[in-house]
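Appendix B. Extra example for self-study. Work through it before the problem class; the solution is given directly after the inputs so you can check yourself.
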Amino acid sequence: MTGRAGVVGGNRGVGSSELRPDGAAKVGGAFAYAGDLRVPGMLHARTLRSPHPRARIGRVDTAAARRLAGVLAVVTAADVPGVATYGLISADQPVFAATEARYAGEPVAAVAAVDAATARRALAAIRVAYEPLPPLVDPGLAAEPGAELVHPDGNIYREITLTHGNPSAEGPVAVEDSYFVGMQDQAFLAPEAALVVPAADGGLDLRLATQWLHSDREQIAACLGLPESLVRLELAGVGGAFGGREDVTLQIHGALLALATGRPVRIAYDRVESFLGHPHRHPARMWFRHTATAAGDLVSVHARILMDGGAYTSSSPAVLANAVTHAAGPYRVPNAQLDGTVVRTNNPPCGAMRGFGVPQVAFGHEAQMDRLADLLGLHPVALRTRNALRPGDVLPTGQILGAPLPAREAIEAVAARPLPPPLTAAAPETALPGGRATAATHSRVRRGIGFALGYKNLLFSEGFDDASTARARLALDSDGVPFGTVHSACSEVGQGFVTVAGQIARTELGVERIELLPADTGIGSAGSTSASRQTWMSGGAVHGACVAVVDRLLARVARSLGLPPEVVESPRRSLVIDGGEIIGTETGTRLPLAEALADGGPVEAEYTFHHRRTTALDARGQGDPHVAFAAAAHRAVVDVDLDLGLVRVVAMALAQDCGTVINPLSLRGQVEGGTAQGLGLAVMEELVTVGGVVTNPTLHDYLLPTAADVPALDFVALTYPQPGAPYGVKGVGEAPTCTATAAVVAAIRDAVGRDLRRVPVRPVDLVDLSALADPAGR
Amino acid sequence: MTTPGGPSTVLHRPGTVGEAVASLTAEVEAGRDVRLLAGGTDLVPALRAGGRGPAAIVALRRVLELRVRGASADALTVGAGVTYADLAGWSLAPGLAAASRVVGSVQIRNCGTVGGALGSANPRGDLLTFLAAAEAEILLASARGARTTDVDGFLRDGPEPGELVTAVRVARPSGPQTYLKIGGRQAAFPALVSCALLVDRVRERVCCAVSGVATGPWRVAAAERLAGDEVDWSTGTAPLALARRFGELAAGGLRAAPPLPEDPRHPADYRVHAAGVLAARAFARCLAGVRRGDPA
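Solution. C-alpha cells for the complete assembly:
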C-alpha cells in the first residue's frame, strides 16, 4: 500500500482485517438466506408472468385456479387496494399488468397455496386472454419522433444535453466510432425471497432480501393503501445484490397474498424468475468522437449515448445522468458535447447495476483512447497519463474536481506491476484459452495486454440528500462487562457493512464486544446499499452515533468528578477511553468504564449523517452533481486462440483510489468481485433477447465467470483520505467494475489486431471465417 | 421443503435390473407417467421447475449391477449407472475419459451417469458425441428381454416404453482417441461445438463425430474416407497437410447437415468453422504427432 497507512483502531478496530461475523456460516452452508425462512402454517406463493413482450390483456380468469384444492388466494391487478403502480423514481410500473403487458416476464397474477407444487398448478389453471401486439424492441426506433408510445408517459425517460467549453473546437487528430454494450444481469447468488406475516393490527411484518428497506416500505405501503407504520420490514439474509434488489419485485405480491389469506406467505423466485424478475444493466449504443493535438492533449470529446431502459422507469434517469457525466472519462477535456437519451421499449426493464451507467461509457471512452494513442504513436499508458484528471480540474459538468483523485498515479502504478511470464510450450493445454476442454493449440495462441483508466462517482448525485441514521448504545451485560450496540437499517448484501460497523464501534466506543441489531424499519433510513455509499454514509452514521455516546458518557463522568464546566462542555480535552478505562489525561485519574456505566446507566445516541450538498444539472448539463469520485486503473493480460476465438484472461492488475482502508481483507473482496463482474461483461455475460424475449434465463445458458476464468488479482491500494468521509474512506465496490471490462477488451484487441466495438466479445468477433486458416496448428 | 414431484409421486427403489424392469413395466402397463432417476442432474431441476411431477419415479442408485464397468479382449462395457467421475480417469478408455473430464462441473461429474446422458439425449451432449464416434452399442433391458441398438437408432427411436438402458459397449481402443470441445468459459460449460475422434489402427480407419452444428452428433463421412485412404497405416501417422484437408472436409460435410436452430450469439457459420478447426486439431493430435510445445 502507498499513502497513509490508515490503521486507527486496535486489533479488531478500524484498519484491521477483522473477519466477517457471518463468514463461517456462509462458507459452511449454515447461513439462513431470505429464501431459507420458514414458519409453521406458511403458504407458498408463485407469480404468473406474461409470455408476450407486448399484449393487450382482456379477461384474467382465475376461477379454475381458485377452485383447486390447496389454493388459498389468487390476486391480480383488480386486488391492489392502494396505488396500482410503483417505482424507484417514477411510479409507472404496475403491481400486476392490468390492461397491457409491456415486457415478457411482467407479472400478471400471483397465487398462494399450501405447497409450491400446488401453487405452480394453480398458475397453469389461470386463463389470461392476451392479444399479442407487435413489440417495440429497437431503442433507436423508440426514440424517433412519432414512434408508437409503449406507455402513456411516453418513450423518453430522460434526455441530457451537456455542453462544455466550445464544442466546435477540434484538434488536428480525431478518432470516431460506435460501440455497443449488451445486457448484463446482476445474477446474484440467492434469488429474490420474502416471508410476509400478517399482524393482528392489520399490518404486515416482512422479512426479506433487499438493498433499501425504507424505499421498499414506502412503495409497498402505497400499493397496499396502508400507513407506513403498519408495514414493518426486517432484513433477512441477502445473497448478493449488485443493484438488482433496488427495485421492488415480489414484495407487494407477497404482501397482497398475506393480507388476502391472513396467513404467512413465503414468496421466492427460482433462477429463471430471478433473471426475469429484476431490472438488468442497460444495453447501450454509443458514438464517440475524440480530437487531440498532435502532442496528444485532448481537445474535445463528443458522445451520443442511447440506452435501452426497457418497459418501466426503474432508475433509468439516474443511470443516464451517470453515463453522460462520465462519458469523457477521467481526463482533462476542455471542450465537450455529451448527449444521452434513455428510452422505453418492450424489452425487459433495466435499472441499477454495479457501476450504474459508467461501465458502458468506460468501455467506449477507453476504446477511443487506445485508438487515439495508436494514431499518435503514443503508448496507451502515456496518453492516459498525459490527460489524466487532477484535483482542481474542471469536469464537463463544470464541477471542480475535489481531492483526492489519483487517476494518473493509478494508471502509472498498474503499468509498473510485473507482467506474468510469457506463455511457453511447457504450459499444459488446460492453461490455454478454453481451459479444461483443451481445444486450443499453443502455436495459434497470441497474447495481448490492455489498459483502462476510469472513475466513478460515489454516493447519490444531483442534489439528492441520501442521509443515513444509526443508533449506538454503551451498556453493561449481565456479567457487568461493557458492550456496545449498533442499530442501522443498512442492508448487508455481502459487502461487509456488518464487519465495518463493528470495527468502527469498537474503535470509537473503546469496547471489544459489539452487537449489531438486525437491520429493520424500527430506525430511520440508512439509504440504499448502492452507489458505493454505505461505508461512507452508514459508516459515518455509526461513527457519529458512537462519538456522541462517548461524548455523553465523558461529560457525565466529568460532571460526577466535579470537573470544571468547560471540561464538561468538551470532555475529550481531558478524558479518554482506553483499555476499558476512562483516563484523565492531565490528572492521571483512572475510572473503569464498567464503573462509569454502572453509576449512571447505559448511554445511547442517534446520529444522522449527511454528505455535502450537490446540485441538479441545468439545461446545458452543468452543475455540481457528484459528491466525490474514485479512480481505478486495470491492466489485463489475455491469451486468444486465433482460430477458435477463445479467450483466457491470464492476469489482471488493479490500482485503485480507496481512501482510508477500514478493512484490508474486505477491501480485497470488493475489488476482486468488481473485477470479476467486469471481466464477465467483457467476455461472457449477456442476457440475449429475441423480439423482447430473454432466450437464456438460466445459469446453464447465462455464463458467469468461475474461479478458472478469473486470475488472481494483483492489487495496489492508493489510500489518500477523502475529506468529508468518516476516517477518510471512499466507496470501493464499483470503480473496478467500470475499468475491468474495458481493460480486458483492450487486451483482446491487442492480441487479435481487430477493432472490437461490442461487449461481450464473442468468439465470432475474433476469427476470420473467410479462411480455415491453418487448422492443424502450424 | 418441497418434495420434487409433489406428494403424489410413487418412488420405486429397486435393487436389481430385474426389479427395476418390473417396476417400470408395472407403471407403464398401468398407463402412468414414469421417469428413471440416476444422478438426477437433469430430472431434479426439471421437477423443480415443472408444474406436475410424474406419477412414479424408479430410482436406480441401489442397482449395483448398473454401476460396474469392465473390459474384455475386444470390448469395454460401461454400466448405465457409471458416473463421469468414474470414467474420467479410466486408462483403458482414453476417449471416454477425455469426454467425461469435461462434462459440466465436478458436482455434475460426480452425479451424472452414462444412462442419464442417453436418457436426456442432449444433441450437444459430450458423452453422446463420443459414443457416436465410437460406434457404441447400447444395451437395453425390458420385460421382453434384452436388445442392443446403435447411437443413431437410439436417438431416432428412443427406448421403448418399459425399457431401461443397462450399459454401453465400445470397442477396445486400437489407436489414439481424443475429445475437444469449446464453449463460453474455462471450465464447467456446456459444449458449443465439440469433436470426438478415434483412430482404429486395426481396421485402418478414423471415426469422427461433431456436435453443435447438426441436430445431433454428426459423423463426418467424407473426412473419415479421406483419412482411411491417406493415413500411412503402417505407422499410423499422417502429414499435417492432411489434417487441414480433414478439417475442411469435416466443415464441408457439416454445412449440408440438418442444422440446429440458429443461435444469435454463435451463428452457424462460426460453428461450422470451429468444427473444422476442432476436427483438424483432433486429427493432428492423434495422427500428425502435434503435441504440446511443437513450434509454430
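Self-check: Chain A touches chain B through 56 residues (CB under 8 Å). If your reasoning did not lead you there, revisit section 3.
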